[in-house]
Design goal:
Elements: E1 23-25, E2 33-35, E3 38-44, E4 47-54, H1 64-75, E5 81-82, H2 91-99, E6 103-104, H3 118-143, H4 155-188
Length: 189
């Protein structure tokens, strides 16, 4: 650093026991820097799918098209709408969704209109409620399934632990659905 007159080192080691972990500047209040893996996930019928995992920082907006295509491969059709965070609302993603007839949640680019209809306001509120589902899934993974406490020493075992957490979340959801099905079957007989 002294010889190059720089104040940064790419891929510097911040943990002796987990040298694969990198600091990711998030800019959030209270914790401007986070450590660990960065994941991009999608949610469909309350099931969470791990789409992208990296130890280095990346822009999640590039994952939207592959996530929507994966949805289409699974269901056979494109979704009517996608409910995304601001980072996903790029011009390229908006144009891509418009070509396929997919409504993207959030306000349009540019100046806000002066008069917004009640229907548009209600749609925006409903979109935010739907989008909060994925934020709740992250909270559930951290609180209930210890996603924020992964202490594996190797990158591959850490990635496996993260994938297993999302698998267990989905299996737990499936088990609840099966229990409800059996319970309703026995109550109706």
């Amino acid at each position: 650093m002294y010889e190059n007159e720089s104040n940064r080192i790419d891929d510097r080691i911040v943990s002796i026991t987990q040298p694969h972990i990198r600091p990711i500047v998030r800019g959030k209040a209270g914790k401007p820097v986070e450590f660990g893996a960065k994941v991009s996930v999608s949610c469909f019928d309350n099931y969470v799918f791990l789409d992208h995992l990296s130890w280095d920082n990346f822009n999640e907006s590039g994952d939207l098209q592959t996530q929507v295509e994966a949805y289409k491969n699974y269901t056979g059709y494109y979704p009517a709408s996608v409910h995304v965070d601001k980072i996903y609302r790029t011009r390229a993603n908006r144009a891509w969704c418009k070509e396929r007839g997919i409504r993207i949640s959030g306000s349009p680019k540019g100046r806000k209109p002066k008069n917004i209809s009640k229907q548009a306001k209600k749609q925006a509120v409903d979109d935010e409620r739907f989008r909060n589902l994925i934020e709740g899934k992250f909270g559930q993974a951290k609180r209930r399934y210890s996603l924020n406490c992964i202490m594996s020493k190797l990158p591959s075992t850490s990635e496996t632990s993260i994938a297993i957490i999302f698998l267990v979340m989905n299996l737990s959801r499936l088990l609840r659905q099966v229990n409800c099905l059996f319970l309703s079957f026995f109550l109706n007989t």
